[in-house]
Amino acid sequence: MNSEFIEIENVYINTEIVDTNFTCDLAKCKGACCTMECDFGAPISKNEIEEINKILPVILEYLPKEHVEEINKNGFWMNVNDELMTRSLNKRACVFVTWDGDIAKCGIEKAHNDGKIDFIKPVSCHLFPIRISSFGGPVLRYERYSECGPALEKGNITQIKILDFCRTALEREYGKEWFEETKKAVDN
């Protein structure tokens, strides 16, 4: 595993992000990142919780009945050791999961794609498989999951690196200028 980093404007990027080919293959993984076995879902920020609270009635229209009931009963987020996380249903699916056949997808993102809300989804989900840690500033690292094997296989065909696969999410979090500066640094 590569533990080298590059630094762009005080953001540290593990070089695995610029070296690893990755392209999601939902037909094969079935949206595994949204349904991994765990007591909780994805990291979420206070600002995202506030934003989702404002649009929650619209999002609920996209979710299965069992998920709506869980959110109405227990809320959609939880505090785990001072980290905010989305809630998990049955230790398996994020409460925002909706189904497209046998593929798990994000109900928030579906509402966004339908033009009903402006919020895309939590940035931690949008950035996946990149995770942000904080060690005196943001540290971007590639989080490996065996369920993402098909994404590595497809990435080797498409030749798209994680950095480029996550471009929209990275621009959302750090800005287009930061992304362009990062591309220049890694392409040289």
Can you describe what's shown?
The structure is a single chain. The chain has 188 residues and is of the alpha+beta class. It folds into two domains: 1-22 and 129-188, no CATH class; 36-117, no CATH class. It is 42% helix and 23% strand. The protein is built from ten helices and ten strands. The protein has helices spanning 16-19, 26-29, 46-60, 65-74, 107-113, 123-127, 149-158, 162-165, 167-174, 176-187; strands at residues 5-8, 11-14, 40-43, 77-80, 83-89, 93-94, 97-100, 103-106, 130-134, 138-142. The strands form three sheets. The chain has a four-stranded mixed sheet. The longest helix is centred in the first third of the chain and has 15 residues, at 46-60. The chain is globular. The two termini are 22 Å apart.
Could you give a short description of this structure?
With 188 residues, the protein is α+β, with helices and mostly antiparallel strands. The protein has helices at 16-19, 26-29, 46-60, 65-74, 107-113, 123-127, 149-158, 162-165, 167-174, 176-187, and strands at 5-8, 11-14, 40-43, 77-80, 83-89, 93-94, 97-100, 103-106, 130-134, 138-142.
- By DSSP (H or I, 4+ residues per run), the number of helices equals 10
How many structural units, i.e. domains?
2
State the assembly state of the protein chains: single chain
SSE string: EEHHEHHEEEEEHHEEHHHH
Please compute the radius of gyration using only Cα atoms. Answer: 17 Å
- Name the structural class: alpha+beta
Strand content: 15-25%
* Biggest sheet features: 4 strands, mixed
Shape: globular
Taking strands numbered 1, 2, ... along the chain, how are they ordered across the largest sheet? 1-2-10-9
Helix content: 40-55%
Q: How many strand units?
A: 10
What does the average pLDDT come to?
A: 93
First CA to last CA: what distance? 22 Å
Instruction: Give the low-confidence spans.
Output: none
